[in-house]
Amino acid sequence: MKLTVNAFLTLDGVMQGPGSADEDTSGGFAGGGWMINHMDPAVARIATEWFHFGDALLLGRTTYELLWPYWQDALDPLDLVADHINRMPKYLVSATLTDPGWNNTRLIRGDVLAGVQEIKAHGTGEVQVHGSYQLARSLYDAGLVDGYRLLILPVTVGEGKRLFNSAADLGDYALTRKETTDSGALAVTLVHRAADSS
User: Fold this and answer.
1) Is 175 part of any domain?
2) Measured at the alpha carbon of residue 50, what is the angle toward residues 32 and 46, in degrees to the nearest 5?
3) Which CATH number does the domain housing residue 75 bear?
């Protein structure tokens, strides 16, 4: 099973708090909501399309608690994206939640990386990480990320949680898809060359 990280990024690589000023203020972050002025129809379409490529979701607690209320209440049978997300298996990495609530959700506790390796070894298709900064970084550091889908917005915010944050973040990726939008966003799909050759 392939593992992809799907994220919104500023031009300076920050992924924290794209949707609203109060989405994630941890660390004193005051730049939230940087995506709002660039949410043109193409950005919305691309972000929604990402879910179509997934066969399972792997989420940290904060992102899980953002997605769960929105999607579980999207019950229109004609909304194929909502139907897909609600039906697909979901894996939640959390040391604090004991009853996830969202259907088809399994908790991963203890050795998270071993749990993810098991999912990758025994699953088929693609398991997607959305947001989930700390989880995405840990999976990258462990060499478990096979590719990225990134929406890079033409805005800088300075400080904040970055997807890549040190000189040790080295990798070789093949660009498999790109698209620009009217608001200046750049959507790219990148596949780790080692994963691409397997």
Assistant:
1) no
2) 70
3) 3.40.430.10
- What ranges make up the beta strands (E) of 11-154? 56-60, 90-93, 105-108, 126-130, 147-153
Per the domain annotation, does 22 fall within a domain?
no
Number of domains in the chain: 1
Residues composing the chain: 198
Hey, what amino acid is at 102? Answer: W
- Tell me how crowded residue 89 is: count the other CB atoms within 10 A of its CB: 16
Q: What is the signed CA dihedral for 142, 144, 147, 151, rounded to 10 degrees? A: -60
Whether 187 is covered by a domain: the verdict is no
pTM of the full structure:
0.90
Q: Do the domain assignments include residue 168?
A: no
Residues 6+ apart with CB under 8 A from 6: 50, 128, 129, 130, 148, 149, 150
At residue 122, φ and ψ (nearest 5 deg) are: -110, -10
* Rounded Cα gap, residues 67 and 87, in angstroms: 14
Could you list the pLDDT tens digit for every one of the 198 residues in the chain?
Answer: 999 999 999 999 999 999 999 999 999 999 999 999 999 999 999 999 999 999 999 999 989 988 888 888 877 776 778 888 888 999 999 988 888 889 899 999 889 999 999 999 998 899 999 999 999 999 998 999 999 999 999 999 999 999 987 655 567 889 999 999 999 999 999 998 875 554
CA angle 129, 134, 137 (to 5 degrees): 75
